[in-house]
Design goal:
- The protein is built from 8 helices and 3 strands; from the N terminus they run H-E-H-H-H-E-E-H-H-H-H.
- The protein is mainly alpha-helical and about 230 residues long.
- It has 2 domains: about 15-125, Ribosomal protein L17 (50s Ribosomal Protein L17, Chain: A, Alpha-Beta Complex); about 160-215.
- The protein has a 3-stranded antiparallel sheet with strand order 1-3-2.
- The radius of gyration is 56 Å and the shape is extended.
Length: about 230
């Protein structure tokens, strides 16, 4: 069971463990990044970060305290001369653990532990991301003023809407040529109907004339017959 187990002894006695962490801390301060196992890196992070915090205040007391942990005057000089200036504005979290896979042989989980402020590539990426970040203050302005400002549509949207309205009008409204064609067609229909009426009227007149001539011929024949009868008498 793991009850109350807050310290990873790393399979070593106390003196051996302290010597291991001391050597790892000196290597990290001098080289800025080292490769080790994940278990040792987590133990080293708890060991070295309080020492790095003391480097922010360059005093004799802090230098002697750091030397009591590191036992290396070159590491103490590098810590207060270089590392302390880099981490001056960082409130803790000076190290980063990056897992790199498993070690051949015993399959121990490996990682790289480094000082965050000495990874120039990742610092450049974070600065570029911060430069591209934009925050909208419309919500704050609306909250302060209590009234929302009308937002105008972009010019491209307005142009697209105007073109769409023009196309719609072009498809719905008839062109002048179509109006002339329809007008001429209506005139042709009117003329055709008028000609049909004239034809019907002329045909009715012909029928009337023909019936009138038939009546006249029958009257003439009737008068001729009466004259012949009178002469015979």
């Amino acid at each position: 069971m793991r009850h109350g187990k807050t310290i990873n002894h790393l399979g070593r006695m106390a003196a051996h463990r302290d010597a291991l962490l001391q050597n790892l801390a000196v290597s990290l301060i001098m080289n800025k990044r080292i490769n080790t196992t994940v278990a040792k890196a987590k133990a080293l992070r708890r060991y070295v970060e309080p020492i790095i915090t003391r480097s922010k205040d360059d005093s004799m007391h802090n230098r002697r305290t750091a030397f009591s942990y590191l036992q290396d005057k070159h590491a103490v000089k590098e810590l207060f001369a270089t590392v302390g200036d880099k981490v001056a504005n960082r409130p803790g979290g000076y190290t980063r653990i990056i897992r790199t896979g498993f070690r051949l042989g015993d399959a121990a989980e490996m990682c790289m532990i480094e000082l965050v402020d000495f990874n120039e590539f990742m610092l450049a990426e974070s600065q570029s991301k911060k430069a591209k970040t934009r925050r909208s203050r419309s919500g704050k302005k609306s909250a302060d003023s209590g009234s929302s400002t009308p937002v105008s549509a972009p010019s491209s949207v307005v142009a697209g809407a105007g073109a769409m309205a023009t196309e719609t009008l072009a498809t719905t409204e008839p062109t002048p040529a179509e109006e002339v064609t329809e007008h001429s067609h209506s005139e042709e229909v009117t003329e055709h109907s008028h000609s049909e009426e004239v034809t019907d009227h002329s045909h009715s007149e012909e029928v009337t004339d023909h019936s009138h001539s038939d009546d006249a011929s029958s009257a003439d024949s009737g008068s001729g017959d009466s004259a012949a009868d009178s002469s015979a008498d």
